[in-house]
Amino acid sequence: MQNHELEQVIKNADRAINNGDHLMEFYSEDATLVVKPGTVAKGKEEIRRAFIAIAEYFNHSLIVNQEKVAIIETGDTALVVAQAQLSANQKEDSEFSMERTATYVFKKDSTGTWRCIIDNSYGAEIIEELK
Q1: What's the mean pLDDT in 25-29?
Q2: Contacts for 35-42 with beta carbons within 8 Å, 24 or more apart?
Q3: Centroid of chain to Cα 78
Q4: Where are the strands (E) in 1-131, listed by range?
Q5: How many alpha carbons lie under 13 Å from residue 112 in its C-beta half-sphere?
Q6: Closest listed residue to residue 104, CA positions, set 127, 84, 129, 130
Q7: How far apart are the C-alpha atoms of 44 and 91, rounded to whole Å?
Q8: At 46, which helix (H) or strand (E)?
Q9: pTM for the complete prediction?
């Protein structure tokens, strides 16, 4: 089976996070980022500020890697479920490492470029906030 083009988009986004690079090109203008269960950032400006705060929280040492990726596509929209590995070795209070089953929704824009419209690295964990 041929790799889906979104796999490379996701690898590029992970590389940008890991290098502390600009991420906004991966998002639609009206995208939503789950910062943590119960807290979301909406739109590129809020998402940009959220990523700055996240990087500072992890002392700019956050490493993200999607180990396995499943993609379900219909038309110009795709659901991505990924086994995400996160770590940070310079977090001030303790080292950090965890694995999550993340969910993302991507949509092709008018130029045919995939943009993330929903970024939920917590996956089903957000349900716990509803209890």
Answers
A1: 96
A2: 36/122, 37/122, 37/125, 37/126, 37/128, 37/129, 38/126, 38/129
A3: 14
A4: 27-36, 39-42, 62-74, 77-88, 96-108, 114-120
A5: 1
A6: 84
A7: 26
A8: helix 43-57
A9: 0.87
- Which are the contacts of 7, defined by CB distance < 8 A and separation ≥ 6? 69, 71
Average pLDDT over residues 103-130: 92
Residues 6+ apart with CB under 8 A from 61: 88, 89, 90, 91
Element housing 48 (H / E): helix 43-57
Q: How far is 9 from 43, CA to CA, in rounded Å?
A: 19
CA angle 40, 106, 1 (to 5 degrees): 135
At 92 the three-state DSSP class reads coil
